[in-house]
Structures are given as C-alpha cells and as structure tokens.
Amino acid sequence: MLIHGRCHCGNIAFDLGWEPDPTEIPARACTCSFCVRHGGVWTSNPHAALKISVKEPALVSRYVFGTRTAGFHVCARCGAVPVVTSLIDGRLYAVVNVNAFEGVDPALLRHASASMDGEGEAARLARRVRNWIGDVRYIETPC
What is the CATH number for 22? Predict the structure, then answer.
C-alpha cells in the first residue's frame, strides 16, 4: 500500500510504501508535551520505505528536545509536524504522523497512547532501530 501524507500547506510531503498491505496501522499518540500540543500520532513499519519531499527547505524547522536524538520536522508556513527523523549510526530512521495521511480509511488506524518516560537514551535508540522506518530518503526540491 502506498500512503501519501503532507503538512497542511504541502511543503513537507511523504510517500510511505507499506508492505504487505496493512490490515491495521498502529497509531501511537505520544504523551510528551510537544506531541500533545502538536497532535502527534505516530506510526512506523520497519519493513516500509519512506520518501520525504520538501519543496521549500527554508520553511522547515527541525525541532529537537530531551535526548536530542530525534528531529521533529515542523513546517514554518502551516505549523504541522508530519515526520520525525533520527540519525542512528549513520542511518536515517523515521516515523510519520497519521494525522498527515491523505485518503487512508480511518478504520485502519489502531489508536493507542505511548509514553517514553523513563526510557534511557540507549534503549530509545535501540527501540527506534527495531521499530521505526529504516529505509528513508529525504529529498529537498527547492522551488
């Protein structure tokens, strides 16, 4: 299944190739203050392929906090956060915000909350390597 997503204005877009076609898509609402305030509900599939396309790189702010091991890609024009990336041992991993999906049947989404409180940095990075999308291409196509 190919899932398209984007920020509200379309500056940050993604194509997520989810194999095999999902019978359900996990949708984890992170309980950290940033995700709560920005409506972050994240999904990933370690067997998926993700292409992130940015039209105007100058309008993307990469926000990091806490362990400083993940970058939240915030569109400076519309304020949406469609993707988070983490560079681990030279490889880019990512999760995408299900609220940025276009044309996906909401019945596929399996909502749950997720708390990373108390998780150490090493455990956090190991979890990302296991669970996040590991085939990520980030393409800037300036206008």
Answer: 2.170.150.70
Token duo for residue 58 = 């100058």
Q: CA-CA distance, 112 to 92, in Å (whole number)?
A: 25
End-to-end CA separation in angstroms for the chain: 29
102-121 pLDDT, tens digit each: 999 999 999 999 888 778 99
- What are the tens digits of pLDDT across the range 62-95? 999 888 999 999 999 999 999 999 999 999 999 9
Find residue 81's DSSP bridge partners: none
The residue behind tokens 């041992």 is 89
How far is the C-alpha of 76 from the C-alpha of 58, rounded, in Å?
A: 8
Q: State pTM to two decimals.
A: 0.93
- Hey, is 34 helix, strand or coil? helix
Enclosing domain of residue 12: 2-140
- How many folded domains does the chain comprise? 1
* 32, 116 Cβ separation under 8 angstroms: yes
Cα–Cα distances in angstroms (integers) from residue 80 to residues 50, 91, 117, 135, in the given order: 18, 25, 24, 23
